[in-house]
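Troubleshooting: if your tokenizer reports a length mismatch, compare against these two reference records.
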Amino acid sequence: MKRRDRPRHPDILTPREWEVLALLRDGLANPEIAERLGVSRDAVKYHVSEILSKLGVTSREEAALWRPSERPWWAAAFAALSGAASRLSPLGRILAVGASISALAGLALLAYAAATLEEEVEPSPAGRLTPSLAPVEQDTQPATPTQAAIRTVVPADLMLGAETALPAGVTLLLETGCFQCDGQTTGLIRVSRDASGQMDREVLASVGGHFLYGTEQTDEGYFVGGIPFPARMVRTAKGVEESQRSMAGLAVSSDGRDIIAGLCYDCAQLGPVGAAVNDQVILYRSDDGGDSWREFGRPGPAHVVAALSPGRVILARETTNAGPLEFYIYPDGEVIPRPETATPVVFAPTVLADGTVVWPDRDGTLRRPDGSLVLRVPERSGEFGPYTISGIAQQTFGDRLIAVSWTASTPPPQGRLSIFSPEGIHIETFTISDSLRHMAWLSASVLAANVAVSPDQLRTQTPQFFPGLLPALIDVESRQIHPITDPFLKPGAEAGRNYVLGVQQR
């Protein structure tokens, strides 16, 4: 499928970008520029980002003071090569950086780069998801920056694009819970759309009620798959009472096939992994994406499901010396060493698609248990730690890219989404209004994740108790976020949080 973006303009800036730059020099803010030009605010954000990138400046003020004579002779050539590289795959862009530097040594290669810009390049179809989306209000199609450019410019904004439906052939595994809090998990559901476009919703695990939009219906049950989680009666000072039944954590493998659910009696909150554990914990496992389940083990009290490594389950448990939580392989008991630099309590380890166990740290790094570096979030002038890494996802296909969601401590905190090669090489970074806590790759350039949206940002009417958080498709190539309103704002959808834990594709 051909790209729909316009050919790049031979000037330093496009005519529209010159208009935006002129209004920047007049001191206008983005909303005023949008009104003056008759375009969306997101379009203005994109134009400003492109202007900063092309002029090699880091702020609106610097852009306003810029004059053509200040532009280095090699900048236009680099911009041309960057444009060509932006049409490559993310891994290809890494290689294109070195090639573009070498190309500056000869005018012949510059001529070749200019000629390249006249052609439309067919993007690689491997793994690419192309959902059917309504047009987005903007006057140009964003291009993905090169690795070199992203180190010297403000990260590109991820813009709110058209609402969309869950693509056919895609199934989301979602954690459910109350919408007004970030409290205990109530279950695991599997959501897809059938051939007629109707929602197919299946509850895989449940420890209570599931309230649905637009109906009086409430699903309530205590089970995993077809295995009941029966009530337990205990004698207390008040007499014989029923134990409270809760979730003790959920974990889903990168391909969505391996799932672990922990259930427990009389549970209490434990540690940073956000799950309830105290009394007896029972583990249930599915290795076929939730179609069938079996009891996997009973690790005892004060344990919680933390992550899945290929063929292994990672649990957390309290230590007797009231220190940080201890993470170990179940059932072997092998303790996962915590790197000396890793923050003692705040973050739990996670597992990449290739099986590497990594520890997020407040210094903005991911490290292996032996302390060796996997990757580091990009630093920017004026931005400082400690950093909060809230989400990590690696592709199970193609270039096996790693997506990391993070925020810096610089006020006001702003979400970032950075893309890395499997070797930890930084490729590109985007700005997002809020950090992404849950995400999974659908294709070479599209992530499924939960994003914060308000009712006034959506065309679809929101229900009365809308939580302000929706599953969405994040296309890092077009730099757009597409909220999945169908089926998640339709009658019968879960009226609460729908955290993306995994993706299955047919």
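Reference record two:
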Amino acid sequence: MANTDSENLGDLVRSRLPKSPTGIVGFDEITGGGLPAGRPSLVCGPPGTGKSLFALQFLVNGIKLYGEPGVFLTFEQSRADVVADVSSLDLDIDGLEADGRLLVDALMLEPQAIETGEFNLEALMVRLAWAVEKFGAKRVAIDNVEALFAAFTKPALVRSELQRLFRLLKDQGLTTVITGERGDGTLTRHGIEEYLSDCVVVLDDRVVQDVATRRLRVLKYRGSNHGRNEYPFLIGAHGLEVLPITSLGLNKQVSAERVSTGVPGLDDMLGGEGVFRGSGILVSGSSGTGKTTIGASFADAACQRGEVVLFFSFEESEAEIHRNMSSVGLDLTGWVDRGLLHFHCERPTTRGLEDHLAMMQQLIQEKAPTLVVIDPVSSLARGATAFDVSAMLMRQVYYLKAAGITAVMTVLTDESDLAQSIINISSLVDTSLELVVLTALGERNRGLYVLKSRGTAHSNQIREFVLSDTGVEVVPVVIGAEGLLTGSARIAAESAERVSAESMSLESEELARALERRRETVDEHVATLRDDFAAEERLTQRLITASEQRQEALRLDRLAQGRRRTVRPPEVEP
């Protein structure tokens, strides 16, 4: 019941304050729907922050997306300059004007020619009212009202006339964007924010360690909740885009499919099946531990499955990566030639964080990869704070997960100032792999363990892995008296184990051969006994037969003797 009441209250608030969506990516999200409909809004900031572009996008998007014609009134540029400035963006000013849905009206102010007699904006109001009526405009943008103060020497009169103009716009229900220059310690140079207080948007362009970043903040929004933080924004191929941290919700679909890491031993450590498709994988370690090689193994395995991979490198060129990976048996050049593997290599200092984010997302949309490798994300922190890096990477991870793209990110842990941002990143990823240095007996060897892997059974062992010309090999664990054995100690232990096993095998073979010889001897002895018994049996049988023959002969002889002693006739003899 409480939730229903809350929803009804929210609907009531929204009904009291209708809003006009700007169509600017991210901005409508942080303002809960756009600018206040039928009211003037102020967009202020120093030169070069994108105020005019904001106003133009507000008008063009209103026409294209919401069917609301608009009027753009500028005091600083000619119409040709306005069109030329946005020609590289997706803003068809000429086409919209030809369709009768947009009017770009440029008023070039000449103080020495027009400041005579009593000053007022009556002519401007009439001109604006005519344009609104002719085009059926619902939206108006005025850029830049500060030029009026610069053109005339009576700021009090200008301020008074502007108040009258803004009241006229509000009375006609026109949603208006007014741009103004940022003053020294004030929002605008001449204080027009005092009577444009329904909604105030502040744009900023700051440089930190030679890296420029644009920021936007909704300073005031009367009668509406809104995001009050500073949000980075950028000007890309499609115009101005605001990138709030909360722009992507936690409502993505997940996959139960597992994909190989490209390293059989690592797959075994992850339950024998690898990682979940569409998950985030963080590979962290110090310099030289093999982070790039692990990332390249992921890419190679995906290409073997016939999938498209996008590899972002911020430290090495593509040629260097090809050369270095070929030394460990990974032929990435072949995948590039087949169009499955795409590289984008760029120094991290060439752009700001948000520009990097926009560039990566644009390439992801163009290439449609199933796996993205970012090597290393820690390089992006140069010239930025840990919070900015964390916020940017959070948006990137959420974006990739929402798109179902497997993300492999490497992090250099040598830089202590990245500790906090790495902690924040690790909480977002599904699988975290730690590469460590194992030092023993004067040797430095590589070790690997799975810090976490959500939703999978995984090994808790630290495993040594070896980079050779045959690839990446995670070797079996060898435990000695002092613990895990690596490098030469492991090889020596394995050699001793092999020698012991071979010795035991030889001993077993000798025992088996001796037993076989004894068996053969016994068999021969038994065969001899059987032969002797057969001979004795035959002899005894002959003796028995001879004895029986003698007995029969004796009987017959006795019968013959009996016949000779009797007088009976032979026929009655028994």
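Descriptive notes for reference record two:
- The first strand starts at residue 19 and ends at 20.
- The chain has 17 helices and 24 strands.
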